[in-house]
Amino acid sequence: MHSLAPTLAMLAARPWKGRWLLAVALLHTLVAAVLFAPQWQALWQRGVFNAVAGDVHMGNAIWFLLFGAVLALLAWEVMALERSQPAVALRPMGWCLLALVLAGVVLMPVSGCWLVLPPVLALLVR
Length: 126
Fold this sequence. Notes:
Elements: H1 5-13, H2 17-35, H3 37-46, H4 56-84, H5 87-107, H6 117-125
């Protein structure tokens, strides 16, 4: 019987995790643009400064977009670390991302949080 451990270890060692996270960030941003189109239109109509002002839907749109940007920044950092650092340097980030993903999955099981799980697990296995 063949063990999957060497195959998983080899896959985890390849530098794909940052690119995966960047793809999820871009998808997140595109979904934010489409899903919250009415909010973006209202944002420009109100004027950008203090446009959220207690509007829960506008706040959701802003946070959705901002999380995509933060995830993109994190993805670029993971890509840089994958190229330059040993695997041990990525494990703390993997544990933090795992906590974030688990919180997201528990709070919103029907969401894109699941998309972040493969690279997170690879960061921990690597």
